[in-house]
Write a structure and sequence with these properties.
By secondary structure, the chain is an all-alpha fold. The chain contains 16 helices and six strands. The strands form three sheets. Strands 1-2 form a two-stranded antiparallel sheet.
């Protein structure tokens, strides 16, 4: 009884203490819950403030002072308009010289027609080939902004030197001499005169190459692709970019060519130089409004790193699970692994020797992340499409060389006005503008579910139109040669220059499709941050197209000779068989189109990595 009473007493004594502890624990838990709720509220407010701040910052862009770019104060249509302006002037200068250069070389420098055509195509080919150099410098060292400024200045100097070379009599041969028997004697330009001409042209080519590769990329930098509104504006930017190119070409083949023929070559080329200087000043005025992207290194260097790493590890076996490959990109930001070109995957196999002592990252020449390897694969996949679009620009080269020579022999009168031969490409440019207007304003708006042709389909349409264009050109040239044979040795043949319009319109429409398709394809399907080099890669198709034209002309010149009636490309096109040359290009275009379709079917675009491919460790349970 005593023990029972004692236990009850102790229990009665301890009960208030246990109750107090319980109440204290409950109050503590309540305070902890309130504290946790308060901390969560503060964290949520902090995240909201961070998200609100990030909403007005452009993605991965900086302003002129190197700070994160404010979306409201930088980028958009006003800065991109200044960029489009300098591209329009570049087209004005380059095309203003190129489209009428063959008549100057033939008429003032007294060079044969085939040599004149080759000088023009080599000049244009070099211009676009140098885009690779400009892209390398922009991505690795200068950035797009400074690349545009420096190479624009180089182009202005080249145009000024060309203006001087046409103004000074000492830099061109004397006029042709006519004797009493009607025989014309012409002295070709000497080595010194041609050297000054080449220096001028290739300074222009250097300026064009460095400028052109950076303009489209820098223009698209003014729009944030991760913002829905600005992403739509970027799509419109590319169509307007091509419109301004066409506008510059239109001004070149009309007003500028007329000034060259009627006022003087030196005036026409001098205007190109002055216009570029003015465009540079306007471009500089927007420097505080532009958005700038950080340089991510040269694509060429990255490709070499992957290839060297893969070669060094060529004897190693590939893991069955791709999750064991080395990767640096955070989850969801890399590129998904693919099974094509698996020999390159060996560059992503990690070993102890890949990490140097004290280094946080591996030696890039020994180990490459999966995303870097996949970027190289992306570039390899582009090669077949890249190669099968070159022939179009070979066809295009004929429109600014032999077509201009054809026009110079035909009746160009329109009432009392004489159309300059160099202005004939105006129909070519008109076809581009009409095609773009019909496509943007009628075809796309009237299709609700269909958003228009894909970039590969656009390129295919351009190639088809070039085939029909060359076939039409061959038939029209056959008719012109028949007229030349019946008319004798007259200077102006009794056949209207408007017979050349069908070939110009078909190939002009083809350019509208293939240029926009290629530009979109090479920018969107190339590695991120390599817009400049990818644009340069696209422009090399133009370059090689011009070089292939020069190569074919030289080969055919050597095979068919130069005797009248037998030579395909005689010094006087009235004595040649230009129609057979056009027919050959049509046949080559058909073969190339088949290869393009095969390449387009084979092509597989890269996919973003939506999540981590690595196996996750199991969570511990309490």
């Amino acid at each position: 009884m005593v023990f029972e009473f004692s236990v009850k007493g102790v229990a009665n004594d301890l009960a208030p203490m246990f109750a107090a502890c319980t109440r204290e624990d409950m109050n503590l838990e309540k305070r902890n819950d309130e504290g946790a709720s308060h901390d969560e509220h503060k964290l949520q407010n902090s995240n909201n403030n961070r998200e609100e701040k990030m909403s007005w910052l452009a993605n991965e862009a900086e302003d002129y002072w190197g700070n994160p770019a404010d979306r409201a104060k930088t980028g958009g249509w006003v800065p991109s308009a200044l960029i489009l302006g300098i591209e329009m002037v570049e087209r004005l200068a380059t095309m203003g010289i190129a489209v009428n250069l063959v008549t100057y070389l033939n008429g003032a420098m007294h060079l044969p027609s085939s040599s004149s055509a080759n000088i023009v195509t080599d000049f244009m080919g070099t211009s676009f080939l140098l885009c690779l150099l400009g892209g390398f410098l922009a991505d690795s060292y200068l950035g797009r902004y400074w690349t545009i400024i420096i190479f624009s200045a180089v182009q202005a100097v080249g145009a000024g030197l060309l203006s001087m070379s046409t103004a000074l009599p000492q830099l061109r041969p004397p006029p042709c001499h006519h004797d009493g028997n009607g025989i014309q004697t012409c002295q070709q330009a000497n080595m010194f005169q041609m050297s000054i001409l080449y220096l001028s042209l290739y300074l222009m080519a250097l300026g064009t190459g460095g400028l052109k590769c950076s303009v489209s990329g820098f223009g698209s930098d003014q729009f944030d692709e991760k913002d829905e509104k600005e992403s739509q504006q970027m799509a419109y930017f590319f169509s307007r970019f091509f419109f301004f190119i066409s506008l510059g070409t239109l001004l070149a083949v009309t007003i500028l060519v007329w000034i060259q023929d009627e006022v003087g070559r030196s005036w026409g080329y001098g205007i190109c130089s002055v216009a570029m200087i003015f465009a540079i000043i306007v471009f500089l005025a927007g420097r505080k409004k532009y958005r700038y992207r950080r340089r991510l290194g040269s694509l060429i260097t990255h490709i070499l790193e992957v290839v060297v790493s893969a070669v060094k590890k060529r004897k190693m076996e590939l893991p069955q699970n791709p999750s064991f490959f080395y990767e640096e990109a955070p989850d969801g930001t890399g590129i998904q692994h693919t099974d094509q070109f698996r020999f390159l995957d060996k560059a992503a196999i990690a070993t102890e020797d890949d990490f140097e002592a004290g280094a946080s990252k591996p030696n890039p020449w020994k180990l490459s992340p999966v995303t870097r390897v996949e970027e190289v694969k992306m570039m390899i996949r582009l090669v077949p499409i890249w190669a099968t679009t070159i022939i179009f620009w070979t066809v295009y080269a004929q429109m600014i060389t032999f077509s201009v020579e054809q026009a110079s022999t035909m009746d160009r009168s329109m009432g009392h006005f004489q159309i300059p031969a160099g202005s004939l490409p105006v129909f070519f440019v008109a076809a581009i503008l009409i095609t773009l207007a019909i496509y943007d304003r009628f075809i796309i708006p009237f299709s609700k579910r269909w958003k228009g042709f894909t970039n590969l389909q656009q390129m295919a349409i351009g190639l088809i139109l070039s085939i029909f264009g060359m076939a039409a050109a061959s038939l029209i040239e056959r008719k012109r040669l028949d007229v030349a044979k019946s008319a004798g040795g007259v200077i102006s043949l009794p056949i209207s220059v408007f017979y050349l319009v069908p070939q110009l319109y078909l190939i002009g429409s083809g350019e509208a499709f293939i240029y926009t398709g290629q530009l979109d394809f090479f920018i969107t399907q190339s590695p991120k941050g390599m817009k400049t080099m990818s644009t340069g890669l696209f422009l090399t198709t133009l370059s090689l197209g011009f070089f292939v034209s020069s190569f074919l002309v030289s080969i055919l010149k050597g095979i068919t000779g130069s005797s009248p009636g037998k030579a395909w490309l005689a010094d006087n096109i009235n004595n040649g068989r230009l129609d057979l040359f056009y027919a050959l290009l049509a046949i080559l275009s058909v073969i190339n189109f088949v290869l393009f379709i095969i390449s387009a079917i084979w092509y597989k675009p890269a996919k973003p990595n939506k999540g981590s491919q690595r196996p996750q460790p199991a969570k511990q349970r309490c």
